[in-house]
Amino acid sequence: LSHDHYREFTKRPIGDARRDSQAMIALTVDDRAAVDATLTSAVAAGGRADPNPAQDPGFMYNRHIEDPDGYVWEIVWMNPAA
What we know:
Layout: H1 3-6, E1 25-28, H2 32-44, E2 48-49, E3 60-66, E4 72-78
Parallel strand pairs: 1-4
Antiparallel strand pairs: 2-3, 3-4
């Protein structure tokens, strides 16, 4: 939604996601390769890769994408056996 259209749904101010942390959004994927593939697709759609450092402690792997509105999404794989 554009901000003008979004204002039709709320009287609250629209926050600035580049200035304030407003939410933590995580998407899980099936394997490590899917983390990188999802990030590549998100960059192609206009996102900015890796606004936060990747984490790779072995049993999980994640990277982040910043969407055009400034929200940061975590793409994560975790080994369910761990």
